[in-house]
From TrEMBL:
This is Purine nucleoside phosphorylase DeoD-type. Homohexamer; trimer of homodimers. A purine D-ribonucleoside binds at residues 5, 180-182, 204-205. Its EC number is 2.4.2.1. It is an enzyme of class 2 (transferase). Catalyzes the reversible phosphorolytic breakdown of the N-glycosidic bond in the beta-(deoxy)ribonucleoside molecules, with the formation of the corresponding free purine bases and pentose-1-phosphate. The lineage of its organism: Bacteria, Bacillati, Bacillota, Clostridia, Eubacteriales. Residues 16-233 form the Nucleoside phosphorylase domain. Pfam families: PNP_UDP_1 (PF01048).
Length: 236
């Protein structure tokens, strides 16, 4: 069996899949943290791998950028590959003063400028949220680490990276912590499929100050987030 975007056979993915936007980050995770890792997808270069972490089967699959791309891959994993849990691990731009480069943000909710949820024809607006069991487990793992500052709250999944007019202040006034581009679609797909999802992010940019992660910070802080996500997967 394959889908238009995934060439893997049914059963090739573990029940928990980590999803970075960048397929090369998926490759890095497989090579760095997984044992017995095998590549299960290479269609469009959107790499996917399955291996073991601390003896537990775990997969990692690139999602691409934006809600449409995340919408495709998470839908196919949930519906055609029997995946139960998806943990997005991404980068984000913080819009709150105390959220600094390297900090970890977990998305309890995901606002959006995308029209992704319009497909459901709901008689109102849907509020996409993380799965509480995943969030609770991941937050406990992150908080136990001395090397991480972890904040849980609302994020914005934006449709536009290069905005003509910056939306930062409007969302900041509503208590939104940070901006990324995929969590909303992931949470919608999980809700509709009756599955579990969580999105977490390393702050790569402070949109209020203009600070951004150095190469070294990207290496270490992103690695800490990967470990939190993998330890969460192993604990499920
Ligand atoms: O680092 P990733 O997971 O790709 O996430 C963020 O980075 C990309 C934009 O540069 C968007 O996909 C955004 O959500
Ligand atoms: O500012 C940022 C940083 C990462 N990802 C985004 O979508 N925006």
């Amino acid at each position: 069996m394959s889908t238009p975007h995934i060439e893997a056979e049914r059963g090739a993915y573990a029940k928990t899949v980590l999803m970075p936007g960048d397929p090369l980050r998926a490759k890095f995770i497989a090579e760095t943290f997984l044992t017995d890792a095998v590549q299960v997808n290479g269609v469009r270069g959107m790499l996917g791998f399955t291996g073991k972490y601390k003896g537990v089967p775990v997969s990692v699959q690139g999602s691409g950028m934006g809600c449409p791309s995340m919408g495709i891959y998470s839908y196919e994993l949930y519906h055609f590959y029997d995946v139960e849990n998806i943990i997005r691990i991404g980068t984000t731009g913080s819009i709150r003063e105390d959220l600094k480069v390297g900090d970890l943000v977990m998305a309890m909710g995901a606002c959006t400028t995308s029209n992704f949820a319009a497909q459901y024809h709901l008689p109102g607006l849907f509020a996409p949220t993380a799965s509480f069991p995943l969030l609770k487990t991941a937050e406990a793992i992150a908080s136990a680490r001395k090397d991480l500052h972890c904040v849980v709250g609302n994020v914005l999944s934006a449709d536009v990276f290069y905005d003509d007019v910056s939306p930062v202040e409007d969302w900041r006034k509503m208590g939104v912590l940070a901006i990324e581009m995929e969590a909303n679609a992931l949470y919608c797909n999980a809700a509709r499929a009756g599955k579990q999802a969580l999105a977490m992010f390393t702050v790569s940019d402070e949109l209020l100050t203009g600070a951004s992660a150095s190469a070294a910070e990207r290496q270490t802080a992103f690695t800490a987030m990967m470990e939190v996500a993998l330890d969460t997967a192993a604990a499920l």
